[in-house]
Design a protein that fits this description.
The protein is of the alpha/beta class. Helices cover 34% and strands 24% of the residues. Helix 2 links the parallel strand 2 and strand 3. Helix 3 packs across helix 7.
Length: 377
């Protein structure tokens, strides 16, 4: 099929921008999480890169960002191209179903039931604009046919860090020839199971991207969690009025806290209502420093795989192949005799670990918080 060269009619993008990115601590903090950071040295933050990717597909005014109240000002500052009404501020985190459901209800309120939304996380890195556009375009076609569509990323390895979605039979849609029924979702498997999945050719990584008619999403939510549905619709009806704050205060704290995967994707897939569109573009969720280091170029003049986030003139490696450094404080960092070390130096915290232990960095955040040092979290 041909790939759209402009905005997709009736398509809006929703960008849930939440979480603290604790595995990238101390760069990422609760008050300044990873989506607000430039982690790849492009001069654009992960959030800005996400919106840069989506605006050509939606056209002006087609992107909504849902974020917490403590981040709303920073989001608006980073995204001057968005209007004031395009940043929806949640009073407190209620997980992805509330965030995406609120956006869906607001879109229906503003544009009617036929609008198609695509939900894309604020902190993922994607390369391959044409393939991404093709994936979204096919996903929109399947969404218009009534499906909840998830994007299945081509797995490059049997990773245990991601969930998986299994592809079934083709939908047989002329405008979406690659889209197939989703036969089911699986949480993060063990290594042996992940290897078996990849061998079948039926499984892809579940990246948490969804494309669906806003009205269809709300209909499923009404069936699965009617109280949550009713609360979000009530809030959306008041969102663009003077009653927003009072309705939010009365309703938001009582909303069910649940991920969209559990609330909608899994039960609707069991009933045959979920489809998967292949995403054959380059994708990374930048889950930890081991992942981040692979996204950066090898430091200039370094032959042993060393990577640096920031000024490499501040980093000295001696017998430390594969070492990653982030001299964010502006001080020099010396790594001697520690292969695959990870050293992150900020103004108020220093992290020293290894790439193999990168997934455990969250434990440091929990540990400091347990000692009452919420200022470090």
């Amino acid at each position: 099929m041909s790939v759209t060269t402009g905005a997709i009619p009736g398509f809006h993008a929703v960008v849930p921008a939440g979480g603290a990115g604790t595995r990238l601590w101390p760069l990422s903090r609760a008050g300044h999480p990873k989506f607000l950071l430039d982690l790849t040295g492009t001069g654009r933050t992960l959030l800005q890169g996400t919106v840069d990717r989506l605006l050509p597909l939606t056209g002006p005014g087609g992107v909504l960002v849902v974020t917490g109240v403590r981040h709303a000002a920073a989001v608006a500052e980073q995204l001057p191209e968005l209007g004031a009404g395009d940043v929806l501020a949640e009073p407190s985190p209620r997980d992805s179903m509330a965030a995406i459901g609120l956006a869906a209800a607001v879109l229906v309120q503003r544009h009617g039931p036929d609008v198609v939304l695509g939900s894309f996380a604020a902190d993922h890195i994607i390369e391959g604009a044409e393939e991404f556009a093709r994936t979204v375009q096919e996903g929109v076609e399947a969404a218009r046919a009534g499906y909840v569509v998830t994007v299945g990323i081509a797995a490059t390895e049997p990773s245990t860090a991601f969930g998986y979605v299994r592809s079934g039979e083709s939908l047989g849609l002329a405008g979406a020839p690659r889209v197939r029924h989703a036969a089911g979702f699986t949480e993060k498997p063990d290594q042996e199971t992940a290897t078996q999945y990849l061998a079948t050719g039926e499984y892809r990584w579940n990246a948490g991207m969804f494309i669906v008619r806003a009205a269809t999403l709300l209909e499923h939510l009404h069936t699965q969690l009617p109280t949550l549905h009713d609360g979000l619709v009530r809030i959306a009806a008041a969102w663009d009025t003077a009653e927003r704050e009072s309705v939010l205060a009365a309703t938001w704290p009582g909303l069910t806290k649940i991920a969209i995967d559990h609330a909608i994707a899994e039960p609707v897939a069991a009933a045959g209502g979920v489809a998967v569109v292949p995403g054959d573009f380059s994708w990374d969720d930048v889950g930890d420093f081991a992942a981040l280091s692979t996204l950066l170029p090898v430091a200039e003049g370094t032959l042993d795989g060393g990577r640096t986030l920031g000024d490499d003139a501040l980093v000295l490696r001696v017998d430390a192949p594969g070492a990653f450094a982030a001299p964010a404080s502006g001080r020099t960092v010396s790594i001697v005799g520690l292969p695959d070390a990870v050293v992150v130096d900020t103004a108020d915290a220093v992290l020293v670990t290894t790439r193999a232990h990168a997934q455990q960095v969250k434990a440091a955040v929990d540990g400091w918080r347990a000692r009452g040092r919420d200022d470090l979290a």
